[in-house]
Amino acid sequence: MFLLAQLHMDLIATKATQNEVRKALENLPQGLDESYKEALRRIESQNHDDCQRAKRTLYWISHALRPLTVAELQSALAVMPGGTRVDHGDLVHQDIILSICAGLVVIDSESSVFRLVHFSAMKFFESIRAAIFPDAQADLASTCLTYISFETFAGGPCPTNEQLESRLRENPLFIIQRRHQSHGTSFESWC
């Protein structure tokens, strides 16, 4: 399906009555940027937790140096300030992540990574992210610092490859940080 038509369908699907559908059809956003803005308005109208979770999802995806796997994004969203580990009870199911992001985020069927719905969405967010996500860099940095401060990393490096593989499976967000750190990139660029 064409992207604009899909975004329009996502908008219409949120309407509960015939009159709401009629009104939405009469006022469909014109063009992709307007449709992206409408999706952001729908995100803003959600309850506080879902709104914040959706915004965090969008800025993690739009700031990442590479696409994030389902487990990586779930871990990033579950990191709590001052936490000492990811509590599996805080992991958000991928279907909920997709639902709260108002059609702006998809999971790629071939690679099982989260991405924005279209490259034009990435351009859109790059052009406005400082305005709509003013605290994104601070939150990303805080999340990364909290994550690498977890108890599981307190013992230092893993003595065997098996232990390293186990640690990486249990701590998927660490893979991102480790890869970028090993390439000599700055902290700011890998968070």
UniProtKB/TrEMBL annotation:
Pfam families: WHD_GPIID (PF22939). Residues 52-125 form the GPI inositol-deacylase winged helix domain. InterPro entries: GPIID_WHD (IPR054471). This is GPI inositol-deacylase winged helix domain-containing protein. The lineage of its organism: Eukaryota, Fungi, Dikarya, Ascomycota, Pezizomycotina.
